[in-house]
Amino acid sequence: MPQYRQFQPKPYRPEMRAYWYFDRWPYLKFILREASSIFVAWFAVVILLQLNAVISGPTAYANFQRWMATPAVFIVNVISFVFICFHAITWFMLVPRVMARQVLERPTPDLMSAAPSFGIWLVASVIVALFALRVI
Amino acid sequence: MADTIILEVARFSPERDSEITYQTFEVPLRADWMLLDALNYIKDNLDGSLTFRWSCRMGICGSCGMMVNGVPKLTCETLISEFAPGPVRIEPLEHFPVVKDLVIDMDVFLEKLQAVRPWIVRKDEGLPQREFLQTPAQLDTFHQYSLCINCMLCYAACPVFGLDPQFVGPAALALAERYNLDSRDQGASERTDVLSQHDGIWDCTVVGECSTVCPKGVDPSLAIQQYKLTATKEWFKTWLLPWGNK
Question: What ipTM was assigned to the predicted interfaces of this complex?
Fold first, then answer.
């Protein structure tokens, strides 16, 4: 710091508010995107519990299904599903930002770079749905 | 359309105040006026003590960046009529120390800018015998980053910089990438220490607002994510080819 600075009046140093992300929609969207990881973790836990129930036998699996059908868990799962979709969409939209563009001759449009991720998601979802509906 | 509009302008006097206050001014609402014209109207006609930076009036010097209704903007290219019927709140750029009224202390940015060595670094000694030729394709790789005017709007839009002032920040990182991608430059390895540290690219959480608010269409967020890719590749190279750096 230059010597003369000690004689200057002190500047005002503003501090960020604790709830700064409510100030503007882009910031809130960012925080929701970050918070969606909690719901991703929740789904991972549910899958682990499901696997444990499957391994433990028919009674345990029936108990697991009953637990999943309770209103509280059902509501949490619906909220989780919305957040996981939001997480997946925003994640896939970031893919073009971290792609090796320099490998390509020309920069590709962002949507075109993101399209394969959405495509694979769609195909995987259709296959799971067909299994769930016992079509295949 | 009304003839006048209310501006709520942030005021701070370092000798008198401990925090920012707001003063209301009624200014003419003219279709051809930018916000900077309204601020100059206040300074010329209503309160000569109002302090703010400005210079070129055509969006190239980067001096007149301010928060306009909470969004960082260059006031010389923001029409006042966009905000009719008002009021319009004008504040100094966020996340920077305020020197007086709408003037911020930009030293913190200048230090970061200097740290990334934003100039062409050559390893050959002596003056070159001829100019360095560059193809249009080589120019395209970095051209958009070279449009940065150091207006610091991206820093005001970046909550990461607000929460962690040590973050090198969007403009300095974009300008570092601008020189890293320049075919004439040989200084990428000298910038790695600053760019690849925790307070460099890895502090960025991809909020993306730096790119949204940039008045020159620069995409600092892209520069940072692209450099993350480069840094990751370099890191793997040091493991797979440890003799490569010797």
Answer: 0.86
